[in-house]
């Protein structure tokens, strides 16, 4: 434990947090394409060996879901809203309800043995939720990845290009899609989505 | 635009997600200080440029960020196989010359 | 009624919707469903352009993508200008405004034509070849002449109001072309449930079926087309893309499709939210190429006079648009298809003077039908010359022997205003050649077919299959096979019945011989768009060009927007005959993307203007904007460059900001620095292998500067790395190097040292970094932090964790300015709060925001390098005089170490980092200026180095610079010279690169 420096990076509620899109304004439109930012969630990168039993059991006991070992998938704890996503054979993304990242990291560190790392990346990325009939079209305009339902069933999660930036695309349920984008590219992504969504009369809530 | 099978993600992905990193299987000498200048220069600067089968190192840059190997035909651009780090190619110029897979 | 050539009945046009349009300023009317070409022909417009080189009047020849003459400039307003649109591919809309691309002052009476065809002698065959061999300076003269004489279209001078975009699409089966082959293929594949994209470049899908005389199931063929399209449209996984040209086919079945979404409606998109055109980037598992064939015109004298057309186009205009492009028709043909034009013409009620057939004994069903209708047929003959200048007035006919290339028998002149020719068909193999595959010549069909491309199946006419029943069957089979190959089960489709037509074999004839030798006969055009004649090709072969690739470059055959659609095969055949070899011996033909021209708008899509490249912002960007910062691009980041106050110039602002940091306190947004979190028990070992210096002894909460080399020993990056715990480090990289360095670490870990237990995670965007620098930094920070900042507890090159303005923070005491400095790092969502809390004390301490320019001046005063500015990939740590940062005796041979003992890196005369002090203190050297030792030597002077960084220092009171100089470390105190472009020579003294506080007292307070 002591060989890695971990501290609670969240201040008390008297400090105002600003999301990466704080300076942008919402766009009012129709219901064919609705984009909503879900800021300030806890984002942790977990790295370790897939055959490390303590890693699997720790994730199950702390987050309440099985560590996904199948490439390009993620699992959602329906009760808490927490999720664990496969990023690569030794890397996972945990997205947690706001404010839980420090506690989750500590609990995981207590339970995992062997070689692993956990890094808080919550300040560096934000999550957009997309719904409406035109999500497929917006993503087709933006990503080289095939987002057709035959190739992108519920539970899939893919890191790919987004316009000239990158993004993680996730499909938590039949109705919704999620985009995880990097903080410094968030403004570019916002402007891209707003522009590409014009013909669909998009709604964007930040 | 190539279509490349990432052996870690387990599916074909668009070239835009990858970056080529040059010739594969260039191992750094274990004792650099024991290398002659010529041996070190060979490792640093000299690369194959075949017309035909070429083993290349690629990285799935916007995907899983893993490095892997690609056996590609430099004329047809056909990709004959991709394989993980530490693995050996199944398709080589020699295996094709011996009448292996085409 | 003004549409003199409009037939009273028929055609797929909507006569209830009349559109008014203009061509070269004259007003005409047409109908909905017309193309611009059909509407012009309906109005009896014969001349649509002037030819590129000879300025000859030209008319419409074809009805599709192969049209060489009717190249238009479109657009009623300046912003809507679009060049090089084929009238045959442009749907008519109300208010369309078109002009000829060529022709000055107008196409009817062309000035260049009147002054003796200046273009002709100036631009003989070999013009481009010879021009490019001439001094380059002459090209400007030629170019002016060409543009004046010919015009090549022009781009708009005003901002395009339309939006364009891209789609990335994936499908099981991509079918290119919606003629009979493509439709049956798409239907067969679509019924399997496969994801199918069917694209077609025309306004309506159906291809040849829209104007064929053949019937399907005993009915007009377009009824079957309507029925199939309706079924395809009902399939959820089938995407129909009309008005969509497959303009490129690339590796691994990647196709680019150019969809025109509003071009058929108006100049600019009727609704601002509509996308005018769209590029579909398609990755297909299987591609079915059903692009059909283009009819080949015959090459005869004056075959470019308006009124000369290809036979199929005549049929298309009559049957599809109800337009008959003349009064009296002569057909000259080598095959049965030519007869169809005559039959359509005569059924439309106008006179067919004769069908001239090169074959001695044609006996096909359509020959019999023509005889039955009483049309005169002249066999074993061909039209060898057209009469007329602005319009055909007659055709000269003679017996012909293709084998000996001679005219035989008697000659006869026929009065007519239209000559339709058919020399057979050339399969549209263009796309198959885009990946480098060469088409294959087939004697039996007298044409090239596509070469083998993996995953590509050509069907129908593109493969030389011209019988409709076979085309439909092959299409269905290919569609089924493609779906099967994509993992779908197929059941096939029922094919419509086709009435069998007996055809007689075509004959190979390309150029029709003339009574005079080719070189002296009236011009016989091969490539109408580029004004390439048979004589030009003959001259090329005489001058020794034997390969068709050379002949093409010599003559411009197949250049430009034409891409040899009508002329390439005729040109090759002529060259082959002259060289006494076969067509395949002469070469094959290569086509490159794009199949037809596309606008830059469609290529750029949405990647233009402020979306051209991502702009990356820090968490403090909004504050910088509000404070009036000027920004500098650093990679994709927007970093504050300087913060002008009032009317300050950049120089004034930077001088003020510099003084503030040296005298009080300044603050820099350093969030863009790359940051990599490194964890694992081997983290320290790994860091020691990738940095040049030693890391074994660095304690917890201690920071150290490190240099990174490539294995060739050259510096690639630098930064401060902090030990946060025994197994935990935070590495910083240069702003531009962040992504590359993370990939670099992963490369070494994954490929060379996977046994080391270490993980790297990017935290660049997670941490915001605020650099508080200057003698008052401690006093200011102590106002809002609980960290003990006292000199002896929180030392230089240490790290502390605590609260800053109520936010958990890591504070690093490191310095890039040489002043007392604290780098405050907080989770980026809270950065604005902390920044504003610091600025609450702005006036108490004289806190001044500073930008990258001031940072550069301050660090250069201290001799701190910027990798990529003071280094260029050829500089070792020793060249920088940074031996103090090299661990020569580390146990592991770190990356770059071995290379430092190579003979080249040991050279005495390497360029080394030095300081330069201009003798005139007011002078600021130019970055990039070359250094010489003797300014009196003759040019070219021996250059011994260059200036890498140069500024004016308010602290030093003079200009100063960093430079790389041959043997620089041995030249201290010497004078060097910088000769400038204006003739001035600047003199400077070589000094230490550390100009200020060499002992580092100021940062250690
Ligand atoms: Zn991958």
Automatic annotation (TrEMBL), chain A:
Signal peptide: none annotated. Transmembrane segments: none annotated. It holds the Pfam family SoxG. It comes from the Bacteria. InterPro entries: SoxG, TrmE/GcvT-like. This is Sarcosine oxidase subunit gamma. It comes from Nitrincola tibetensis.
UniProtKB/TrEMBL annotation, chain B:
It comes from the Bacteria. GO terms for biological process: tetrahydrofolate metabolic process. Pfam families: SoxD. GO terms for molecular function: sarcosine oxidase activity. This is Sarcosine oxidase subunit delta. It comes from Nitrincola tibetensis.
UniProtKB/TrEMBL annotation, chain C:
Residues 172-432 form the FAD/NAD(P)-binding domain. Residues 620-890 form the GCVT N-terminal domain. One of its GO terms (molecular function) is sarcosine oxidase activity. Keywords: Aminotransferase, Oxidoreductase, Transferase. Residues 911-997 form the Aminomethyltransferase C-terminal domain. The keyword Signal does not apply. The keyword Zinc does not apply. GO terms for biological process: tetrahydrofolate metabolic process. Residues 522-606 form the SoxA A3 domain. NCBIfam families: soxA. Belongs to the GcvT family. This is Sarcosine oxidase subunit alpha.
């Amino acid at each position: 434990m002591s060989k890695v420096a971990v501290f609670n990076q969240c201040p008390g509620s008297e400090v105002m947090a600003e999301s990466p899109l704080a300076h942008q304004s919402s766009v009012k439109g129709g219901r064919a394409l609705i984009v909503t930012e879900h800021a300030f969630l806890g984002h942790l990168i977990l790295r370790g060996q897939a055959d490390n039993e303590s890693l699997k059991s720790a994730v199950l006991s702390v987050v309440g879901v099985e560590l996904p070992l199948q490439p390009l998938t993620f699992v959602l704890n329906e009760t808490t809203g927490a999720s664990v996503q496969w990023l690569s054979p030794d890397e996972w993304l945990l997205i947690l309800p706001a404010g839980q990242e420090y506690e989750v990291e500590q609990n995981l560190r207590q339970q995992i043995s062997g070689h692993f790392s956990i890094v808080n990346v919550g300040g560096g990325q934000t999550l957009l939720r997309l719904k409406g009939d035109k999500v497929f079209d917006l993503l087709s305009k933006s990503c080289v990845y095939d987002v057709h339902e035959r190739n992108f069933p519920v539970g899939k999660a893919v890191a790919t290009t987004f316009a000239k930036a990158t993004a993680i695309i996730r499909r938590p349920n039949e109705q919704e899609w999620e985009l995880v984008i990097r903080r410094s590219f968030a403004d570019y992504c916002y402007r891209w989505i707003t522009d590409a969504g014009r013909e669909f009369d998009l709604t964007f809530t930040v | 635009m190539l279509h490349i099978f990432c052996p870690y993600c387990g599916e074909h992905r668009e070239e835009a997600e990858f970056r080529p990193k040059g010739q594969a299987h260039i191992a750094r000498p274990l004792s650099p200080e024991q290398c002659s200048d010529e041996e070190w220069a060979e490792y640093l600067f000299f690369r194959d440029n075949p017309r035909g089968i070429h083993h290349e190192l690629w990285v799935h840059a916007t995907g899983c960020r893993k490095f892997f190997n690609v056996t590609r035909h430099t004329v047809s651009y056909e990709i004959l196989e991709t394989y993980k780090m530490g693995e050996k190619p199944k398709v080589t110029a020699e295996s094709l010359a011996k009448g292996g897979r085409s | 009624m003004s549409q003199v050539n409009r037939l009273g009945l028929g055609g797929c046009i909507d006569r209830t919707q009349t559109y008014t349009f203009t061509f070269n300023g004259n007003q005409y009317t047409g109908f909905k469903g017309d193309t611009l070409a059909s509407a012009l022909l309906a109005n009896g417009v014969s001349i649509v352009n002037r030819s590129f080189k000879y300025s000859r009047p030209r008319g419409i020849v074809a009805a599709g993508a192969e049209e060489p003459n009717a190249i238009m400039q479109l657009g009623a307003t300046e912003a809507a200008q679009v060049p090089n649109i084929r009238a045959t591919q442009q749907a008519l809309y109300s208010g369309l405004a078109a002009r000829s691309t060529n022709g000055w002052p107008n196409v009817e009476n062309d000035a260049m034509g009147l002054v003796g065809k200046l273009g002709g002698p100036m631009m003989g065959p070999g013009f481009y070849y010879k021009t490019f061999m001439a001094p380059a300076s002459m090209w400007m003269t030629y170019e002016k002449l060409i543009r004046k004489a010919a015009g090549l279209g022009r781009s708009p001078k005003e901002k395009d109001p339309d939006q364009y975009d891209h789609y990335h699409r994936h499908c099981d089966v991509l079918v290119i072309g919606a003629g009979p082959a493509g439709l049956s293929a798409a239907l067969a594949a679509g019924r399997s449930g496969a994801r199918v994209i069917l694209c077609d470049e025309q306004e309506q899908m159906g291809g040849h079926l829209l104007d064929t005389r053949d019937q399907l199931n005993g009915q007009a063929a377009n009824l079957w087309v309507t029925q199939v399209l309706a079924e395809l449209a009902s399939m959820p996984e089938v995407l129909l893309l009309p008005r969509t040209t497959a303009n490129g086919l690339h590796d691994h079945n990647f196709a680019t499709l150019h969809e025109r979404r509003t071009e058929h409606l108006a100049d600019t998109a009727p609704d601002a939210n509509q996308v005018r055109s769209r590029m579909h980037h398609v990755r297909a598992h299987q591609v079915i190429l059903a692009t059909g064939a283009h009819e080949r015109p015959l090459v005869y004298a004056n075959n470019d006079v308006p009124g000369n057309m290809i036979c199929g186009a005549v049929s298309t205009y009559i049957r599809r648009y109800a337009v008959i492009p003349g009064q009296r028709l002569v057909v000259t043909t080598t095959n049965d298809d030519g007869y169809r034009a005559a039959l359509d013409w005569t059924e439309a009620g106008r006179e067919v003077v004769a069908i001239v057939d090169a074959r001695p004994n044609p006996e096909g069903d359509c020959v019999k039908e023509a005889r039955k209708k009483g049309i005169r047929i002249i066999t074993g003959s061909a039209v060898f010359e057209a009469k007329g200048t602005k319009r055909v007035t007659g055709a000269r006919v003679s017996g012909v022997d293709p084998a000996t290339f001679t005219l035989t028998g008697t000659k006869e002149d026929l009065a007519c205003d239209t000559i339709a020719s058919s020399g057979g068909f050339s399969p549209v193999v263009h796309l198959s050649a885009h990946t480098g595959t060469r088409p294959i010549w087939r004697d039996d069909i007298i044409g090239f077919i596509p070469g083998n491309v993996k995953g590509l199946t050509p069907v129908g006419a593109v493969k030389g299959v011209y019988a409709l029943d076979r085309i439909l069957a092959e299409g269905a089979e290919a569609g089924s096979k493609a779906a099967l190959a994509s993992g779908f089960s197929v059941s096939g489709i029922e094919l419509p019945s086709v009435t069998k037509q007996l055809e007689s074999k075509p004959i190979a004839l390309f150029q029709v011989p003339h009574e005079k030798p080719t070189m002296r006969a009236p011009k016989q055009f091969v490539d109408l768009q580029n004004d390439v004649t048979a004589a030009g090709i003959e001259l090329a072969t005489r001058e020794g060009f034997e390969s068709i690739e050379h002949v093409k470059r010599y003559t411009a055959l197949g250049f430009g927007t034409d891409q040899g659609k009508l002329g390439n095969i005729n040109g090759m055949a002529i060259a082959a005959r002259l060289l006494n070899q076969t067509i395949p011996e002469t070469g094959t033909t290569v086509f490159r993307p794009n199949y037809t021209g596309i606008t830059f708008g469609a290529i750029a899509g949405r990647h233009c203007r402020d979306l051209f490249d991502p702009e990356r912002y820090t968490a403090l960007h909004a504050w910088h904007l509000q404070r009036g910062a000027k920004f500098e691009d650093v990679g994709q980041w927007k970093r504050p460059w300087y913060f002008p106050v009032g009317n300050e110039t950049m120089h004034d602002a930077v001088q003020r900001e510099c003084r503030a940091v040296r005298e009080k306190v300044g603050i820099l947004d350093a969030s863009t620095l790359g940051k990599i979190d490194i964890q694992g028990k081997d983290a320290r070992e790994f860091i020691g292998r990738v940095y040049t210096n030693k890391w074994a002894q660095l304690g917890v909460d201690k920071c150290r500067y490190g240099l990174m080399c490539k294995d060739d020993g050259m510096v690639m990056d630098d930064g401060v790395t902090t030990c946060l715990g025994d197994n935990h480090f935070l590495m910083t990289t240069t702003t531009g190097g962040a992504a590359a360095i993370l990939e670099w670490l992963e490369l070494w870990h994954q490929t060379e040292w996977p046994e080391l237990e270490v993980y790297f995670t990017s935290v660049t965007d997670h941490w915001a970094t605020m650099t508080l620098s200057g003698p008052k930094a401690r006093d200011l920070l102590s106002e809002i932090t609980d960290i003990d900042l006292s000199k002896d507890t929180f030392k230089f090159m240490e790290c502390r964790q605590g609260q800053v303005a109520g936010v958990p923070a890591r504070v690093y005491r490191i310095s890039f300015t040489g002043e007392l400095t604290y780098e405050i790092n907080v989770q980026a969502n809270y950065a604005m709060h902390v920044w504003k809390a610091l600025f609450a004390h702005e006036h108490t301490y004289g806190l001044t925001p500073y930008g990258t320019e001031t940072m550069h001046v301050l660090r250069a005063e201290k001799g701190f390098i910027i990798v990529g500015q003071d280094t260029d990939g050829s500089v070792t740590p020793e060249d920088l005089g940074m031996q103090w940062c090299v661990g020569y005796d580390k146990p592991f041979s770190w990356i770059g170490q071995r290379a430092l003992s190579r003979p080249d890196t040991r050279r005495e005369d390497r360029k080394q980092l030095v300081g330069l002090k201009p003798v005139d203190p007011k002078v600021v050297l130019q970055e990039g200026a070359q250094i010489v030792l003797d300014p009196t030597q003759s040019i070219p002077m021996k250059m011994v180095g260059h200036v890498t960084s140069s500024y004016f220092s308010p602290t030093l009171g003079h200009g100063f610079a960093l430079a790389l100089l041959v043997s620089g470390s041995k030249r201290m105190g010497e004078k060097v010279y910088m000769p400038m472009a204006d003739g001035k020579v600047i003199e400077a003294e070589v000094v230490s690169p550390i100009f200020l506080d060499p002992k580092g007292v100021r940062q250690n307070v």
